[in-house]
From TrEMBL:
Name of one Pfam family that matches: Aldo_ket_red
Keyword field: NADP, Oxidoreductase
Gene3D superfamilies with a match to the protein in the record: NADP-dependent oxidoreductase domain (3.20.20.100)
Protein name in the entry: Aldo/keto reductase
Coiled coil: none
Amino acid sequence: MEFRYLGNSGFKISEITYGNWLTHGSQVENDTATACVRAALDAGITTFDTADVYANTAAETVLGEALKGERRQSLEIFTKVFGPTGPKGHNDVGLSRKHIMESVDGSLERLQTDYIDLYQAHRFDYFTPLEETMQAFADLVRQGKVLYVGVSEWTADQLRAGSALAKELGFQLISNQPQYSALWRVIEEEVVPTSKELGISQIVWSPIAQGVLTGKYKPGAELPAGSRATDEKGGANMIKRFMNDDVLTRVQNLQPVADELGLSLAQLAVAWVLQNDNVAAAIIGASRPEQVAENVAASGVVIPPELLGRIDEALGDIVERDPAKTHESSPKERQA
């Protein structure tokens, strides 16, 4: 396992990070989830990402239990705040001071820890003054409940405004967590250049495009039983944008590149996002322990420029690059 600095800080994280969105507390049983976490630790992963909204707080509980007994100083535990949790009342959502301060205590209890290494604003809140949000984060840092602060799916302008306020308040934003894969490159035009300027790294989610880049979905074929594309709890909705024969055919055309590198298609996809020098880590998930070991093999892989060019040629114009997609990711209406 290789490690990278997160943003303009002295904080290092494993470049393969284990995340439990859509799995822990939902898709897989707790004992399987624990086995996946143990597999991650065995593979050298030290960084774990979750959120209070995942499975309505259950994912945090499962992760906290799975990590119990590990040396806390050897782990980097990330979580997020924004989404509706609990009974989903009128103050159970967003980035108000009230919701942040109440949410962090709940996360600390569920994760069975005294502090959170990286606390992230899960989306941008259009209904709370940014000054209020950043002041709450600054207070959590001073209280020692949070060591570092990051965000998720913020636009370039939002990153710039948040970073400026953070500096005024005596801390810094060091990370952004966007969706990023060879099929979904919407951060490249605006978010990445701005982040480099501000000293912010990307911790990217869905590097294998919810499983599409594994090549297991074949054009014109039946969906594999038990796959994310058949999961009506949320997985099928997330993956549907990629589930057409043109995309699936192009993905199959990546196989010769993977073969040349001695990688599976999944490993190629994870290695691809790590070629971007603004990416500090790729988040992987797993429903089986063996999936962890496979994806970890992408750590340290260098893809030569010629093969990166062949990947671009194979995927062609099916790649989504519109930077406006980041703006669309944050809700413009209250969820509760």
